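At this stage, I wrote out one protein's amino acid sequence and its backbone structure tokens, and that material follows here:
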Amino acid sequence: MTPPESPTSTEASAGGFATRTPQELRVENVALRFGGIRALDDVSFTVASGSLHALIGPNGAGKSSCFNVISGLYRANAGRVLLGGTDLTGLAPHKLAGLGVGRSFQNAALSPGSTVLDNVMLGRHALTRGGFLEVGLRLPWTVRAERRHSARAREICDFLGLGPVADVPVGALPYGAVKRVDLARALAVEPVLLLLDEPAAGMNASETAELAGTISGIRAELGISILLVEHDMGLVMGIADRVTVLDFGRRIADGTPAEVQSDPDVIKAYLGTEAA
């Protein structure tokens, strides 16, 4: 798997591309309430720069709520979310994309009638310049920028093994390929931080194994930080550098996969019993 080349500084000034450097993500004392329900209670953890970090927990533990706070869909009642030296707290998702936060979705929200390439191009929107009038008039600089973005989107498709189907409608693809398109769209923002929301949901064993290799390859070859929310414990324990465990909205463990697997509080949360 050959990674797409990073955009050059010339491209950055001419076409809206951004040169990205991996950043540390810090979630600090985040609290979230829905009426009288406390979804998150003083949650803190750090995703080290360039690492693959998993956020896990039983059903109802607060994983999705925490993920949605980080990605700008929910606004926390207390606490902060920091990416490097930038405070992300309360920023809208499109603002986060412009800062280099890419997100995939558990249920891929793609346009089934559009091609793979067109869906991936949607991820480039935060990196484009020019308004409706400039684009509509097909000014020379907008045409050149569009060509560069399209070429970059094809590189990302090739990187994820989607090159042969780049011009095929998403609706004609098998489920595993559709999930890869969603991942490609997230990579299209040139992220410093990639947020993966249950990427293996609905996949069979062979598709999950292939996905594990893809995610590990993204981290190794592109060097970006990755935060993964996932129910498949085999996937998580096989690829994560560090794992944070939530239960009833609180952090109950944080450590290496081996440390977390043997933690009595984690065993109790998942199995309802103390460790023997």
Remarks:
- Strands lie at 25-34, 37-47, 52-56, 78-83, 86-87, 101-103, 193-197, 225-229, 242-247, 250-255.
- Residues 140-159 form the longest helix (20 residues).
- Residues 110-190 form one domain.
- The chain has a mean pLDDT of 85.
